[in-house]
Amino acid sequence: MDSGDSLFYFDTGSKDENTMNVDKEDKISPASYGLVNPDLQSYLKNCETMLDDPKFESIEDRIIFVNNVYEEMKGFELQLTTDHEGSRILEKLFRISSEYQIRRFFSLMREDTIRLVIHRFSSHTIQTLLLLSAVALEREAHGETSDLAAGAEIEGEDEVRTKMPTFEELLLELVNTLTPQWAFLMANEYASHILRVLLLVLAGNPIEDQSNPKNSIKSKRSAKYVEDRNGEPINHPSLSIQRKIPDSLTEALNQLLKTTDSSINDLVARGFTTSRVGSPVLQQMLVLQSKKGTLEQPGSLLDKCLLNLVSDPTENARRDSALKLMIDDIVGSHFLQKVMELASPKLLQTLFERYFCGRLSVLSMHPISNFVVQSLLSNAKNERQLKTMIAEIQPTVGTLLFKQRPGVVRALLDSCIRLRAGSVEIMNALYSGLGISALDERKELINLLAFLMPYKEFVNADYDQLPFRIQGSLIIQLVLQLPGDGHEPIMNSFFAQAPDRMYSWCKDPSGSRIIEAIISSEHIPLATKRQVLDQYSNKYADLAVNKYGSHIVDACWKVSDMPYKEKIMIELIQREMLVQDSPFGRIVMRNCRVEQYKRRADEWRERE
Predict the structure, then answer these.
(1) How many other C-beta atoms can be found within 10 angstroms of the C-beta atom of residue 361?
(2) Is pLDDT of 14 > 70?
């Protein structure tokens, strides 16, 4: 097959010694050390119960237990890493091991690193070791690690122990070992996860965000497997923040990026853009290059991925065909989303003019490429780019809103907020898309967005039967954040509605989000918010006992001055039995500190 016929083509026949090649599977096979001794396996399974719920009476008991486990498996460590059950138990053991024991185990794997990182089970063990190394690096920099095994001081041992390599030394050696095989490892489904973690560790970037599963470096299947077997993520605070890294590791990362940038050939780089396994690693490498200012150099990794678009932006039929296919590719589209995020204004303009201009309407409706369009729109680099994009999207805004593609409109609003520009243009596009032609029709704007329906349909619909649309609620919340007086169309529409109708929104999951956004918005003047609060006068107790309305009361409380807080307080006290009878009402009462007000009103006023 000709190399130009496929997006995912690896030049496996290349003989250039300076070019990384992924065709190494016939030379390197996953590690294999035979079956684990049944007695040892049984012992470790018994220990797993204690590892799942490590409640030791004292630190000494925990240290003795961990030391005994390491003593029992001495000489079989690598064998256990390649065992299905053994590798999982090791990961649990590492979580309560000393840093000395982690370093010792890490050092044992140095002799067979490549074969271990491509192994189905040992790759997870190495990944856990890397995460623990990231946690320990900062302590090591402050000289807080020990070269003695845990318990040595407690037991009074005086024996001389072999000095273990530091975490810094172990990571440097790991980088040196993996770099020559980098392209091959990127294409391996097990090793690729290790490469991603390693890059994050070397850069000191956040690795795990436990509040957002999408940011996890573990695959969904791996995370589910660990969860089903009582495994716990390494939820250390330092993994979710930027960490200080030794200069030697920073230099190692720079050298790694430089080496891979020059040695991965064009065809291999292009292949990784549509590889489910290699693309996440590739994207991480581009992020790091962007931070170092080397992303868009001629001949860079990005230049190779985009078929030399950076170094030679002239028209190229072969390149244009390949990139248009990439936009519609389920994996390639993710790669391009990252490119949009990282691209300079010049490169983004080139991409827009060459591959999106005149096609936004069609691409926005595509089930895959619409996400690339969203990334393009949300990453507009300047006001000129933004207004050009709005102008092209405007004729199809109605179709986007009503045909399950409101994310494209939200992307434009995101850019308007970020660049503090385009408010008038985006609102005109919304009016056009919603079928609003006359000024007096704009009073229904908040309804049309909340229910995502055109004006002509709304005026003939049964209001009480209309369902809120989550995407419409999100669009309203974004409009409220537009710079200057961009929020006024929504607020004018809000005040044009019957108060009872707006009150009913407070008790709806989506409607309450809109009301809460209005009250909490930093862009809406306090005087305007006071008009909103006045609409709920004598209704705060009823709102407090509602699951969604209680959040409205909390929001009103936060923006109220002292006299208005006392007004809310008196209303809650007058209907205290009703409010206290509701779990949501009790939370509101606690947040407002009603009991303290009843006992010592003066002290309450001072604290408020």
Answers:
(1) 15
(2) no
Tokens 């995407």 map to which residue? Answer: 471
Q: What is the DSSP letter of 160?
A: -
Phi and psi, residue 173, nearest 5°? -65, -40
- DSSP of 498-513, one letter per residue? -HHHHHHHTTSHHHHH
**CA end-to-end span of the chain, whole Å?**
74
Distance of CA 234 to the CA centre of its chain: 17
Confidence class for position 17, pLDDT limits 50, 70, 90: very low
Tokens of 304: 């190779």
DSSP state of 112: G
Task: Evaluate whether 173 touches 165 at the Cβ level (below 8 Å).
Answer: yes
Tell me the C-alpha distance between 99 and 145, whole Å. Answer: 7
Can you list the pairs that 587-590 forms with residues at least 24 positions away whose Cβ atoms lie under 8 Å?
Answer: 587/550, 588/544, 588/550, 588/553, 588/554, 589/544
Burial per residue of 8-45, b for 16 or more beta-carbon CB atoms within 10 angstroms, e otherwise:
bebbeeeeeeebbbbebeeeeebbebeebeeebbeebe
Residues 608 and 601: their CA atoms lie apart, in Å, by: 10
What is the number of other CB atoms lying within 10 angstroms of the CB of residue 55? 7
Q: How confident is the model at residue 161 (pLDDT cuts 50, 70, 90)?
A: low
Phi/psi of residue 264, nearest 5 degrees: -80, 120
Q: What's the token pair of residue 6? A: 């496929």
Place of tokens 């309407």: 361
Tokens of 71: 């003593």
250, HSE (Cβ side, Cα atoms, 13 Å): 9
Cβ burial 124-144 (10 Å sphere, 16+ → b, else e): bbbbbbbbbbbbbbbebbeee
Token code pair at residue 299: 């001949």
Q: How deeply is 385 buried, as exposed, middle or buried, from its count of CB atoms within 10 A (0-12, 13-18, 19+)?
A: buried
DSSP character string of 362-394: HHHHSTTHHHHHHHHHHT--SHHHHHHHHHHHG
- pLDDT above 50: residue 160: no
Average pLDDT over the chain reads: 88
**Residue the block writes with tokens 């690339």:** 372
AA identity, residue 574: Q
Q: Which of 453, 551, 545, 448 has the alpha carbon at shortest distance from 497?
A: 448
